[in-house]
Amino acid sequence: MLQRRKKDQSYSSSSSSSDISMPPFLPIRTTSEPSFKSFILILSILLNLYLLFLTWAPSYAPLTSSTLITTVSPTTRRHLLFSVASSSLSWPRRLPYLRLWYSPNSTRALAFLDKPPPLPLNSSSSSSSPPVVISADTSAFPYTFRGGLRSAIRVARAVKEAVDRNETDVRWFVFGDDDTVFFVDNVVRALARYDHRRWFYVGSNSESYDQNVDHSFEMAFGGGGFAISCSLAEVLARVLDSCLRRYANLYGSDSRIYSCVAELGVGLTHEPGFHQVL
Ligand SMILES: *[C@@H]1O[C@H](CO)[C@@H](O)[C@H](O)[C@H]1NC(C)=O
Ligand SMILES: *[C@@H]1O[C@H](CO)[C@@H](O)[C@H](O)[C@H]1NC(C)=O
Ligand SMILES: *[C@@H]1O[C@H](CO)[C@@H](O)[C@H](O)[C@H]1NC(C)=O
């Protein structure tokens, strides 16, 4: 109703202004006034259109991104690369946990160890466990958290080492501890809802209030596992070493990753399916 009335008014005012401005014998002063009015009118219409475009623009952005995601094939198991942080010491005890969710035929996973596992477990005869990768030496990195464990650097660096392998067709890098039990199909379903070509850091905070206060409510805790989209992971891998040197004061690996992701301007996308039990 309001819009129609406004339109009618504007139509009538424009026709009247043209009537007045048309006769050439009218004094200049009177003709300049309506033309100034119509100038203001056109200016305000242009301004309105500009403001309308501005307010519409943000609603267009997610539309295009969601239409884009339908053009790529759905995310499946083979698009996920799991990286598990372990050690030669804990490896024999944690293998049963890994076998709960890992399947060599359908799950892509790597286990990052500090050194080769004990003899009977070193061969690939244990094909029901993920391939073992020996982490690179991190003794040159500073670690200043009193009473903490230096292995936090090695574990955080698995993010870079997993990316640098150039594994094909990885959309999501998923990280967890050697006692993290993944329900792979659930992880796939959760991550398939996000566009891996955009920067995503997906996980959940701790179920312990104190842990969240000590670290952050916006940090993904490693015990529950977390995921990084391939586009973010590639950028993160490039800056990780310099970033790890700057956060020598932190305790764990997950707070290191959190800090480095935060430096890239990315916040946590909360997926409560990733959770750790204390
Ligand atoms: C995995 O694939 C191999 C070869 O195709 C097959 O022999 C084996 O039974 C499969 N294992 C499982 C758990 O499906
Ligand atoms: C496992 O250990 C045996 C004995 O030391 C060695 O011959 C073999 O090459 C090792 N396998 C792997 C995969 O490292
Ligand atoms: C991965 O790709 C980069 C750049 O193409 C290359 O420098 C690097 O050596 C590759 N790494 C592996 C393990 O193939």
From TrEMBL:
One Pfam family linked to the record: DUF604
Low complexity: compositionally biased ranges: 10-20
Gene3D superfamilies: 3.90.550.50
Keyword annotations: Membrane, Transmembrane, Transmembrane helix
Region feature (Disordered): 1-20
Ranges that cross the membrane: 39-57
Protein name: Uncharacterized protein
Source organism: Phaseolus vulgaris (Kidney bean)
